[in-house]
Every structure is written in C-alpha cells, then in structure tokens.
C-alpha cells in the first residue's frame, strides 16, 4: 500500500466510523470500559502537554500549531489560556466537531483558527508545533519525512507523541482495541523511540522533557524537543 492510500484510508476513517468512535472517546458521555480507559489515557497525554506548556508561564505569548487536532482536546484549553492556536486536521468532520466544541467552551475564539488540512501541507512558522497521537497513522518509513516537515514549521519547540515499539508484544495484543470492528481497515503503526529521537536530532532538535502515559489499552510516549540553539 502506498502512502497516498494510507492517508486516504485514515481520512475516510476519521470522516466516518472513526469520527463517531473518537468523538465519543474524546467526550464526556457514556462509553464502554475500553473506551473509558483510552479516554483517561489520552486525557493524561493532553494534561501533561498542557503542564509542560504552562510551566514556563508564557502560554499567552506563544503561537502554537496543533497538527492533527482531532476534536480540539488540546487546542481549546490552549486558546483559553491565551495562546494563538492554529489547529488543523485531515478530517473535516473532526474539524467541524472541534469548531463546535470551541464555540461552546470559549467566550472568544479570535485566537483559535481551524483548518481542514493534511499536516504535510501545512506552512508558516510557529513557536511550538504539537502533534499528539497522530504518528500511529504513519508507517515507520514515512515518519522521518512527516517529522521533518513539522520541525520546519517550529521556531523553537516540537512536541510529539507516539505508540512506542518497545511495548510491541503486549501492545500488539491490545491493538485491536485502538481500531476495533470494521474500523480495523486503518492500521496502527508503532515507532521505536531511538528512531524518533534520531529523526529529531537530524532536524536539529534535542529532547528536553519526556513522559510515558500508559493505561490498560492506551500507550503514548510523549517527547518535547527544542532547537539546539534555543
Ligand atoms: N491530536 C488529537 C488529540 O490528541 O486529541 C487527535 C488524535 S486522533 C487519534 C488522530 C487524528 O489525526 C485524527 O483526528 C486524524 O484525522 C488526524 N490525522 C491523521 N493523519 C493526518 C494527517 N496526515 N494530517 C492531519 N491530520 C491527520
């Protein structure tokens, strides 16, 4: 399968069955136990990212690109804290849902821009580029190109999360819960941390902070990397 096919499958999935599933997981309504576990894991990933960003006390001065923003789980609180946020996703349904949630949660959405866009077509420069739980849709041989593109948009910092390959055996057993039933049409790709760190290094970035978020069915390695000069 070539990269274009992979992408079309992901896009179609997040505009159909994937949209219904992930909108519920990333919401607060009733879900099954597995989905609840994934929701809690993902919430920890978002909370850790927010804590790193707020630690320095300058969120309101930051321009942030949230690449593959989903339903806005990270973009909305960042905009609420005053950051200038550019949020985009390849799925128009996810972006429409994110817009709705932003309108409901924020009194003012002037500093939050949404777009339906493939992250590899993004342009511009942002202080911080963030891409949470998207690399799972990228095969290993496509990760370098994707990360290099995100790095080219980042003036100072890149925050990425991915399902680590070190947990491969236990994870593979559970991977069915990432994309159950008909939605198994989308593959989940794991990445070796050493590969990701090496790609970041080649792009001129060094890892500063890291965390591993792990629940029963959710695994996410979270890395913050900054440009060597900053
Ligand atoms: N980052 C969000 C979060 O953590 O709440 C959403 C994570 S969700 C598992 C993955 C998202 O990545 C989906 O909304 C999907 O449409 C998006 N996505 C996948 N491939 C993409 C691409 N090439 N460009 C932009 N978005 C993409």
Automatic annotation (TrEMBL):
The keyword Magnesium does not apply. Residues 131-227 form the Magnesium-protoporphyrin IX methyltransferase C-terminal domain. Keywords: Methyltransferase, Transferase. The keyword Secreted does not apply. It holds the Pfam family Mg-por_mtran_C. Its EC number is 2.1.1.11. SUPFAM superfamilies: S-adenosyl-L-methionine-dependent methyltransferases. It comes from the Bacteria. GO terms for biological process: chlorophyll biosynthetic process; methylation. This is Magnesium protoporphyrin IX methyltransferase. The lineage of its organism: Bacteria, Bacillati, Cyanobacteriota, Cyanophyceae, Oscillatoriophycideae.
